Amino acid sequence: MKLYTARHGETEWNALNKVLGRTDAELNENGLLGARKLADRLENTDIQLVITSPLQRAYITGKTVADRLKIPCRTDDRLIEQNYGIYEGVDRDDPAYQKAKREYFARYPQGESFLDVAARVYPFLEELKTLQEKSVLLLTHGGILRVIHSYFADMDNEEFVTFTTPNCGYREYDL
C-alpha cells in the first residue's frame, strides 16, 4: 500500500508559533489556500481514500483534497493531535515547553506522552494494511506526523524532536 501523509493548512496559532494540540482552530486564509494547493499537488496521484483527524483544520484540508480527487473522506479519532496539556497555546520557543518536549516517556502535565500517541497511531497504521484501497492519504497534525515518521524511519532523539512537516506538506511511504 502507498501511504501519503499530510499536515493540515495554516491556522492563526500556527502563524503565531503557538503550541496547537486539541484546540479546534479554524484554517486562516493561508490555510484555505494551502489546502487548495495541496489538492492541486495530489491531483494526479492514485489516492483512493482520505482519512483525517476529527479536528476541523485537518478535516477541512482533507475534504478539500478528497473533493478534488472525487474520493471518500472520513475521520478517525486516532489521528487527533497530541494533547500538549498545560503547554496548549504557549509559544513553541518557550523553554519549559522545549524541555518537556525532550522528555519522551513523560506525559506533558495534563496531556499525553509521545508513547501515548504511538500506542494509538502504530496499531492504526497496522490496521491500514487490511484496507482494500491501495493508496491512502492521512491528513493530520505535526505531532502525529512525527510519530508516523518514526514508524517508518529510525530516528535519534534530536531527529525525533526536531522533525517537522510544514502546513500542507506531505510525504509518501510504502506500508
Description:
Helix 2 runs parallel beside helix 3 and helix 5 packs across helix 6. Strand 2, helix 3 and strand 3 form a beta-alpha-beta unit. The chain starts with a strand and ends with a strand. The longest helix is centred in the last third of the chain and has 15 residues. Helices cover 41% and strands 14% of the residues. The chain has a single domain, classed as Phosphoglycerate mutase-like (Rossmann fold, 3-Layer(aba) Sandwich). It is of the alpha/beta class. The protein has a 5-stranded mixed beta sheet, sandwiched between helices. It contains 7 helices and 5 strands; from the N terminus they run βααβαβααβααβ.
Summarize the structure.
By secondary structure, the protein is of the alpha/beta class. It is built from seven helices and five strands. The chain has one domain: 3-Layer(aba) Sandwich (Rossmann fold), CATH 3.40.50.
* Low-confidence sequence ranges: none
Q: What is the name of the CATH superfamily?
A: Phosphoglycerate mutase-like
Mean pLDDT: 97
Q: Supply the number of helical segments.
A: 7
The rough form would be described as: globular
In the CATH hierarchy, the third-tier topology is known as Rossmann fold
Strand content: 5-15%
The CATH architecture comes to 3-Layer(aba) Sandwich
What distance lies between the first and last C-alpha atoms, to the nearest angstrom?
A: 5 Å
Major sheet, described briefly?
5 strands, mixed
Q: Radius of gyration from the CA trace?
A: 15 Å
Q: What's the SSE pattern? A: EHHEHEHHEHHE
Question: What structural category do the secondary elements indicate?
Answer: alpha/beta
